[in-house]
Amino acid sequence: MTAAGGRPAPLSPEDQGFARRLAGLLGADLEEARRLTGDVLYVRLSDGRQLAAKGVARQSAATWRPGEPWAELVALDALGAEGAPVPKLVAADLEHGWLAMEFADGSDLARARRLPAPGAFAALAGGLERLHRAFARAWDALAPWAVEGPAREREWAAGLLPFLDEEGRAAWQDLAAEALERPEAVPGPLDVQAANVVWQGEQVTFLDMASFGYDGKEKRLAAYAQRAGPEPVSLLDAEAYAYYRRAMGRKAALRLAFFDFLYWGMALARVFAAARHPGSAAARRLEEAWGPPQALVAPLAAMWRRPRLDDLRVERVRRGLVTWKEGAPGPAGK
Is the pTM of this model over 0.85? Predict the structure, then answer.
């Protein structure tokens, strides 16, 4: 877990008081406290320990009641007992709705200027397998807090057909049919993005267990391994695909390619929509997060066109992308 870019906002007196009380509860003095994100505090203790503290997540806020656990607290407790690559739970207050966990320092794709160390994809894939196995072992305890995952892959895939030429559309439909024929849905986190995984050398730590349920293995892997904006990056190069095919088999590698394309196709769809409706709230949010839509088309298209697998359909899909013409408001100038 790393701090967001820019200078953090000053802590309120209430937050400072909370950090001091947390330090005292753990038998130490407070050395430093600052905000990592809108709802997460970084706390450094006089004995050198570093913590991240957060309240009940928004996903549980409507149902949580004082004296009761909530999804993320249950998940960190159960997964930690299974040796999962998640932050260690240090303290919690069920009455007031907060938890403190070990601070996971290291590199992440969400804000990194360069990719993590060589072998980062293998570490990510292996860590995610360990996380999935831990979820499976702890699932009886976790199931009451699970939610239904967003299973809209077929709909999203169909929405990308206008971005492809005729040969690419046929290949995309065939690839989607095979990838989704028997999806490898397993229990795990549902808030899956580059900001929620951290590398410490060859070790990875997965953050944010606030919502969990069944979803696809490769869908999670494609989302953890890539960042769409403001400067697109990906760990999924040809070497990563070769590794994943050796480790998990051809079917799994094809599913990864499908969700890889889907990730970048959805990002392009957001950019096209923002360009067509520049005054909309969605367009403003995208520009604040990623930058001007038209400047994003080329780098996002380059991510789509990356070499992946030695597979004819994958090759046709990656070469079949049709982006807008100069100054036009959508794919193929439409």
Answer: yes
